């Protein structure tokens, strides 16, 4: 390399007293020493703002060690047809698919934020031409090699805090996805139950309509023979028309129940999976006899709210670090020459190292406002976490209240059907014997139909309550996805400075 090139390379690249490897090692060691600093406040889980015991309803509380965890959904549901429908929903439901993709989006953001403390190395070529004062001479300078631009040394943990924010957001998203899955399973089970109940009500209404049409034809014959009055015929016609109206309503509800189930499953359902049949009470496992005292905290929606709170807490550390100096490093290593054709020839090697430290002096209150905003965001997250617990407690309390009374209600309704059946049979015999009026027989027939409907509805309510208990107790959700997210998002290391 010529003397001119050497002088120009020296002018372009700053020469330091230490060799390049020693300088870079020293900078890396200093960065490693100081990046352990963190201003993230110590996290403390807020106390649950609910009572320490469930309402008195016949279902007590046991410690977590004394009660086995709830079964997975495939064990909670015993019907093979419904299991297949839920499997299709887990594969095709769009809400669950969006929730799953949100995890991947949050994981990408976490990886992006996690790369913040690492330098970005680029390969580049730069050139400049400059004239002297008299304009007669033009000097040229060209450099090429590896460049590190404004690498921030995370001395005060700002980038580490932001990485922890992204990690907490990832885990919150993962738990939110599990909450969506639990709700989906419960919704599919509820829609299937509604479909089966609508089928049962439709069959009951069709049978009732047939009975009333037969009764109307008989009354018409008796009227034509002058045995009964026009009032009796009108009452029979009214009862038959009422059954026809109910039948139309039941057909509409059946179609709507089928549409709701199709939407949840996410695809057209094969007719074999829509076959109507008797629904035994054992189709859904009942809630265990005792409930652990810390059961609410395992619900995925509450876990999601808590990780959102952790995210807000970590963001305070980043806001605090902004008050301290920002130290960055710009470096380059490569070739330099006054002629572009000589840029990569031997003997033109050079390097630069340019550290920079910026201490906030005046920013118009931006950093203070940012810190206050982060602190308020944490307070909001605390309120949201507490509200999630309160909502969960209320849902469980309502579910327990239903569990304690619905079985008794169903038993009473079944006894009512027996009584109304006997009443109808006796009223029909008395009417045919001329002992009682036609109105008494029609009233007994109407009451029997109402009682039979109430039994089907009470039975559906009891089973729906079991589905509700499955959902509000956190379900048998699979923690595998959350564990995978946690393994992919290790905790950010940090010590209080």
Explain this structure to me?
α6 (158-224) packs antiparallel against α11 and α7 (230-265) packs parallel to α10. It contains 11 helices and 6 strands. The chain is elongated and about 130 Å long. The relative contact order is 0.18. A hairpin with a 6-residue loop joins β2 and β3. With 497 residues, it is an alpha+beta fold. The two termini are 50 Å apart. The chain has helices at 3-12, 20-34, 73-76, 80-92, 94-114, 158-224, 230-265, 300-321, 366-432, 438-472, 480-488, and strands at 61-62, 121-131, 138-153, 291-292, 326-337, 349-358. The strands form 2 sheets. Strands 2-3-5-6 form a 4-stranded antiparallel β-sheet. It has a two-stranded parallel ribbon with strand order 1-4. The longest helix is centred in the middle third of the chain and has 67 residues, at 158-224.
**First and last CA, distance:** 50 Å
Biggest sheet layout: 4 strands, antiparallel
Global mean pLDDT = 82
Low-confidence stretches: 1-21, 27-35, 58-70, 477-481, 492-497
What is the number of E strands? Answer: 6
Cα radius of gyration in angstroms: 38 Å
Q: Based on CA inertia axes, which overall geometry fits?
A: elongated
Q: Report the sheet-strand fraction.
A: 5-15%
Layout of helices and strands, plus pairs?
Layout: H1 3-12, H2 20-34, E1 61-62, H3 73-76, H4 80-92, H5 94-114, E2 121-131, E3 138-153, H6 158-224, H7 230-265, E4 291-292, H8 300-321, E5 326-337, E6 349-358, H9 366-432, H10 438-472, H11 480-488
Parallel strand pairs: 1-4
Antiparallel strand pairs: 2-3, 3-5, 5-6
């Amino acid at each position: 390399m010529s003397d001119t090139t050497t002088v120009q390379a020296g002018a372009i690249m700053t020469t330091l007293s230490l060799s390049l490897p020693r300088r870079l090692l020293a900078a890396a060691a200093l960065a490693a020493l100081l990046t352990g600093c963190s201003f993230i406040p110590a996290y403390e889980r807020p106390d649950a703002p609910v009572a320490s015991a469930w309402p008195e309803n016949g279902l007590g509380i046991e410690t977590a060690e004394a009660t086995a965890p709830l079964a997975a959904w495939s064990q909670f549901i015993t019907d093979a047809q419904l299991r297949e429908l839920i499997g299709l929903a887990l594969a095709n439901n769009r809400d669950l698919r969006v929730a799953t993709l949100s995890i991947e989006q949050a994981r990408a953001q976490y990886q992006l934020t996690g790369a913040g403390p690492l330098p970005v190395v680029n390969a580049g070529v730069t050139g400049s031409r400059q004239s002297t004062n008299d304009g007669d001479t033009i000097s040229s300078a060209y450099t090429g090699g590896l460049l590190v631009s404004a690498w921030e040394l995370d001395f005060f943990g700002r980038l580490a805090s932001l990485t922890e924010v992204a990690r907490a957001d990832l885990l919150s998203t993962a738990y939110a996805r599990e909450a969506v899955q639990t709700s989906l399973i419960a919704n599919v089970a509820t829609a299937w139950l509604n479909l089966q109940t609508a089928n049962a009500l439709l069959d009951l209404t069709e049978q009732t309509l047939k009975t009333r049409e037969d009764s109307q034809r008989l009354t018409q014959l008796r009227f034509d023979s002058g045995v009964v009055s026009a009032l009796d015929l009108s009452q029979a016609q009214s009862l038959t028309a009422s059954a026809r109206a109910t039948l139309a309503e039941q057909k509409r509800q059946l179609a709507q129940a089928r549409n709701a189930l199709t939407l949840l499953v996410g695809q057209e359902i094969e007719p074999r999976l829509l076959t109507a049949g008797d629904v035994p009470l054992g189709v859904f496992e009942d809630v265990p006899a005792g409930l652990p005292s810390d059961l609410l905290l395992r619900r995925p929606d509450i876990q999601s709210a808590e990780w959102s709170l952790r995210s807000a807490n970590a963001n305070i550390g980043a806001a605090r670090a902004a008050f301290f100096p920002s130290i960055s490093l710009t470096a380059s290593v490569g070739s330099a020459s006054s002629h572009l054709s000589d840029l990569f020839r031997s003997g033109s090697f050079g390097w630069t190292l340019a550290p920079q430290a910026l201490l906030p002096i005046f920013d118009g209150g931006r950093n203070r406002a940012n810190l206050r905003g982060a602190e308020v965001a944490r307070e909001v997250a605390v309120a949201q976490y507490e509200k999630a617990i309160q909502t969960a407690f209320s849902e469980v309390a309502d579910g327990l209240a239903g569990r304690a009374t619905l079985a008794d209600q169903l038993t009473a309704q079944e006894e009512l059907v027996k009584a109304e059946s006997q009443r109808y049979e006796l009223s029909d015999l008395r009417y045919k014997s001329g002992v009682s009026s036609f109105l008494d027989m029609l009233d007994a027939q109407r009451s029997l139909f109402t009682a039979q409907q109430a039994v089907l509805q009470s039975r559906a309510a009891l089973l729906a309550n079991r589905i509700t208990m499955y959902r509000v107790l956190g379900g048998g959700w699979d923690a595998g996805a959350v564990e995978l997210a946690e393994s992919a998002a290790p905790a950010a290391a940090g010590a209080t400075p």
